[in-house]
Amino acid sequence: MVRLCYSIFPTKLQLLTSHTVIFPAWKTNLNHSRSADALRARARLAKPMGLVEGPGGLGQGGMAATLRDDSHESETKYEEYGYNAQLSDRISLDRSIPDYRPKKCKQMTYTDDLPQISVVFIFVNEALSVILRSVHSVVNHTPSHLLKEIILVDDNSDNVELKFNLDQYVNKRYPGLVKIVRNNKREGLIRARIQGWKAATSPVVGFFDAHVEFNIGWVEPALTRIKEDRKRIILPAIDNIKYNTFEVQQYANAAHGYNWGLWCMYIIPPQDWLDKGDESAPIRTPAMIGCSFVVDREYFGEIGLLDPGMEVYGGENIELGMRVSKKEDTLCNVYLQRKMGACGPTELLPD
Question: Which InterPro entries does the record match to this protein (predicted)?
Answer without folding.
Answer: Glyco_trans_2-like, Nucleotide-diphossugar_trans
